[in-house]
Amino acid sequence: MSKFYNRRTNELTPYVPGEQPKDKKYIKLNTNESPYPPSDKVLDAMRRAINGDLRLYPDPDCVELKKAIAAAYDVAPENVFVGNGSDEILAFAFQTFFEAEKPVRFPELTYSFYPVYAQLYGLAFETVPLNELLEIRCEDFFNSKGGVIIPNPNAPTSVAISLADVEEILKKNLDVVVIIDEAYVDFGAESAVQLVQRYQNLLVVQTLSKSRALAGLRVGYAIGAVDLIAGLEKVKNSFNSYTMDRVALSGAVASIQDFEYNRTIQNKIVLTREMTSKALQEIGFKVTEAKANFLFVSPPDSDAKKLFDRLREKGILVRYFAKTPQWLRITIGTDEEMDALISTTKDLIKEGSSENE
Amino acid sequence: MSKFYNRRTNELTPYVPGEQPKDKKYIKLNTNESPYPPSDKVLDAMRRAINGDLRLYPDPDCVELKKAIAAAYDVAPENVFVGNGSDEILAFAFQTFFEAEKPVRFPELTYSFYPVYAQLYGLAFETVPLNELLEIRCEDFFNSKGGVIIPNPNAPTSVAISLADVEEILKKNLDVVVIIDEAYVDFGAESAVQLVQRYQNLLVVQTLSKSRALAGLRVGYAIGAVDLIAGLEKVKNSFNSYTMDRVALSGAVASIQDFEYNRTIQNKIVLTREMTSKALQEIGFKVTEAKANFLFVSPPDSDAKKLFDRLREKGILVRYFAKTPQWLRITIGTDEEMDALISTTKDLIKEGSSENE
């Protein structure tokens, strides 16, 4: 509490991102970063942008980047919005489309930034539980009064819904905005971008942070109907004319254009995910059907906090959420990192069972 | 109007930044950019940050940059907030400190983003006219119910208030936040940073865009009491955990530390400003007492729009605001650019008077 803050600030509880530890070197499987570096073409493009022109403002309309994204997804530049990470875009979207008195709907177990955005802008929200397989049931999202936001695949579960389900949700919400948060879509889910021309209520949000290995660059984008994009521009231009710096814009264009490299690292991560999922199931873990660059797993004794703590002691960081005490979220690293995770986990489980004898 | 936007978005009128023309090469004196490039140390630091680590998120707390700023201004890191340009920080400050029902007060003629922020967050505001010399009268800002924001020097007038006046305003507003927007302070005004330890209600906002020649990098910072900084962090962390990318953070640290280079280009700009001011006064312009990197000038016939249009035709871009039809804002460029401005203006005035004969 502070007399200097307004009421809403005093009541705010911020989002807490995954740990970025500085104490020692970990095998870092806790924030869904890519284990592979970004494309050399991206680094080269960024280096070329480092020159005296940094004295000048960047293009506030980010035309070149919008054109590159439009070309990559076969839409018009007017269907594209870009921002300082997809989190910024999600914040703008909450601020642009949702109303205080009409609850926006999202899954109960999902990206925990959504209720924070709602709080930040004084918006009502309602949540719907997942089913017992931790899946989103599409019919739970029909006929929302205020709007819908669903990550596909969902986080932290890694479970995806089908494009047919997304389309059903769109059809049953024609008067409100439906946001499909596709931060992890490139690892195996079906993108809803192909529905953008047919549904005026659809906004798809993606990011370069995960599947393009650029979490350190802060670039996200949204693809949607022209009217929705114009609304986001209105809010962005009332907040900060220049959200994207010159170097980030150059790197982002190169990243969007380097399909081949991105596809290669995405495929590697998918293969490593399937290997890891299989190995953990073999030692008794429950593992959801993962479509993102992370697994959502429950250890044989269901004590996820204990496993989290022990892995941390052994130098392996994964993510534990108090609201799902039986589960851990594990980012997919390199094959070597996942081998280390698997063998360390096996040892810990062995120790655990001999302790119990 | 769109059925998909909420009420506030439908009512919003965004800020319009100065033109960034793409049609041809202008002498660009319209957006207060530096005519000199950033320090080579900044460019080198940025180049070093371009590597595979871009796959990892940046430090969400920006500790290294906060430490560098704290050392430069002799405050603690807890007194420092950093953001994606000072515009982002100003937006967060409006959102953190001001209330819907208690008007924040600012000058009538000032940075035109302030009323946009108020509108964006549904806040009340009240404005106070400048005096006939286009100066801020300090007593007009006493006893605000909601808070105060003043740019020092003011924009677009370039006129500064004294540190004593700032302190008076602080003393007469102990229960509300007073923001001193020092985007242009390094060109000749007295900074209020030295008052931060004594006034719990003071927030000073600065930027690397102008006096450090880094408009293209998007870095701003605020210095204030720990409580105010914590409030900004709360809002920022409810909006976007990572507002600053790795390359920008590295460049910003180097810029903050390169006092010598920055002082050199600031001094050059001040000398060029004084030369330009004198030359324009000699040909009959009214010119305010400028303390920023721009002049606010009124041509002999008071027809600023005509002069703006003709300068544009001749390849010189300055800034015209419809609300001050007798005045132009002219960014200080290099000596050569200002010589071109002065001689072109002389020619245009000569043409104008022979037309009138």
Oligomer: homodimer
What is the assigned CATH homologous superfamily of the largest domain in chain A? Type I PLP-dependent aspartate aminotransferase-like (Major domain)
- CATH class term of the largest domain in chain A: Alpha Beta
Through-space gap between termini of chain A: 51 Å
Name the helix and strand elements of chain A from N-terminus to C-terminus, one letter apiece. Answer: HEHHEHEHEEHEEEHHHEEHEEEH
Radius of gyration of chain A: 21 Å
Count, helices of chain A = 11
- Extended strand count of chain A: 13
CATH architecture descriptor of the largest domain in chain A: 3-Layer(aba) Sandwich
> Which pair of protein chains has the largest interface, and what are the residue counts?
A-B, 83 and 83 residues
Average pLDDT of chain A, rounded to a whole number, is 96
Task: Give the CA-based shape of chain A.
Answer: globular
Please give the share of residues in helix of chain A.
25-40%
**Poorly predicted runs of 5 or more residues of chain A:** none
**Overall domain count of chain A:** 2
Percent of residues in beta strands of chain A: 5-15%
Sheet with most strands: strand arrangement of chain A: 2-8-7-6-5
Sheet of most strands of chain A: 5 strands, mixed
**Class per helix and strand makeup of chain A:** alpha/beta
CATH topology of the largest domain in chain A: Aspartate Aminotransferase, domain 2
